[in-house]
Amino acid sequence: MKMEFNPNNNIVKLCIQGMDLEGKNKPEEASGIFLQAWNEATNDFEKFTAAYYVARHQKNISDKLKWLETVLHYALKKNNDSVKTALPSLYSNIAKCYEDLGYPDKAKENYQLSISFKHKLSDKGPFYHGTRADLQIGDLLTAGSQSNYKQELIMNHIYFAALMNGAGLAAALAKGDGRERVYIVEPTGDFENDPNVTDKKFPGNPTRSYRSQAPLKIVGEVTDWVRQTPEEVQKWREKLANNNGDIIN
């Protein structure tokens, strides 16, 4: 079954709750929430996600390794683009555990696996770009526009996603008075994982967000994405306004 990352998923919500507790310097409470998420997880994606957070709260290296290998098991079992992007850091963390435990051969093997997966982007789309601009099929979207999130920032890349609803949220947050639009786009050159979201709060690139310095060609438009309520959009705006982190550009 294909499953898209959903912030309203119960396990994802528990993990967000755990991360909030981490931010409040309450590691024991956070650890309990992550274990609860693991115990309530019902599918491979949920187990992959919950195990990732349980792993990072292990104080014993052997226990951490066991949990990281559990994460890896569900990542390989799930085998889709939402989790494949977690493999480089996952193999690297496993390698570090083996290194610390005194198994250099196993450490080397996993470091090599980490490197081998680092630049493998297998996502074939379709891809979407959300905006309020009125554009036509055949038009090219290019880098060099003002950021929707920091007015003073000119973007060196053009951003897009493989999840239609994610592009729809970007359209809702975009500047301008035009109606929200989600275009189907084709990259005309190489692209990479969006470093602003990859391996940040969640492992890998679960929102399948990408960026490119090459133009995106508009090949169609969709209208049937799940729209956020005005209240939800306002919450996102407030969240972005309160985000003090730098945008990787």
Please supply descriptive tags for the structure shown above.
249 residues; alpha+beta; ADP-ribosylation fold; 3 domains; four-stranded antiparallel sheet; three-stranded antiparallel sheet; 9 helices; 12% strand; globular
Itemize the secondary structure elements and their pairings.
Blueprint: H1 10-23, H2 27-40, H3 44-55, H4 61-78, H5 81-84, H6 87-100, H7 104-118, E1 127-131, E2 140-141, E3 158-161, H8 164-173, E4 181-187, E5 192-193, E6 209-212, E7 216-222, H9 230-241
Antiparallel strand pairs: 1-4, 2-7, 3-6, 4-7, 5-6
In short:
The protein is of the alpha+beta class and 249 residues long.
Give an overview of the whole structure.
There is one protein chain. The chain has 3 domains: 1-83, no CATH class; 85-120, no CATH class; 127-241, Rifampin ADP-ribosyltransferase domain (ADP-ribosylation fold, Alpha-Beta Barrel). The longest helix is centred in the first third of the chain and has 18 residues, at 61-78. Helix 3 (44-55) packs antiparallel against helix 4 (61-78) and helix 4 packs antiparallel against helix 6. The protein has 249 residues and is an alpha+beta fold. Helices cover 45% and strands 12% of the residues. The model has no long low-confidence stretch (mean pLDDT 86). The radius of gyration is 19 Å and the shape is globular. A 4-stranded antiparallel sheet has the order 1-4-7-2. The protein contains 9 helices and 7 strands, in the order H-H-H-H-H-H-H-E-E-E-H-E-E-E-E-H.
